[in-house]
């Protein structure tokens, strides 16, 4: 079976964190610490760099500047610096949870 890019599947909000779920993930993530490329916003629609916690099958993002998150973006820029890969070695595809 050919390896596939991990792609965004959905998210849930838990307090001041946003939990992101993926498809085609395989055995988890490959990443340096800290993970770069995530930004997070609240209802004001202002994005801030996010602190990222990597779990086996999901990513948890938060920022002290965003107490009530509603949206997250990964590698959503012309010049990206994302450092998140699936266990297959393929990069996580860029995504956003908002439609602004």
Strand content: 35-45%
Q: What oligomeric state do the depicted chains represent? A: single chain
Order of helices and strands: EEEEEEEEEE
Radius of gyration, Cα only, in angstroms? 13 Å
Low-confidence stretches: none
Which class do the helix and strand fractions yield? mainly beta
How far is the N terminus from the C terminus?
37 Å
What does the largest sheet look like?
A: 4 strands, antiparallel
Helix content: under 10%
GO molecular function, one term: sialate O-acetylesterase activity
Protein name: Sialic acid-specific 9-O-acetylesterase
GO biological process, one term: carbohydrate metabolic process
InterPro entries: SIAE
Summarize the structure.
The chain is mainly beta and 100 residues long. The protein contains no helices and 10 strands.
Written account of the structure:
The chain is an all-beta fold and 100 residues long. It has strands at residues 7-14, 17-23, 29-30, 38-41, 47-49, 51-54, 58-62, 71-74, 85-86, 95-96. The protein is built from no helices and ten strands. The model has no long low-confidence stretch (mean pLDDT 94). The chain has one domain (7-89). A hairpin with a 2-residue loop joins strand 1 (7-14) and strand 2 (17-23). The strands form three sheets. Strands 1-2-7-6 form a four-stranded antiparallel sheet, with no helix packed on it. A four-stranded antiparallel sheet has the order 5-4-8-10, with no helix packed on it. A two-stranded antiparallel ribbon has the order 3-9.
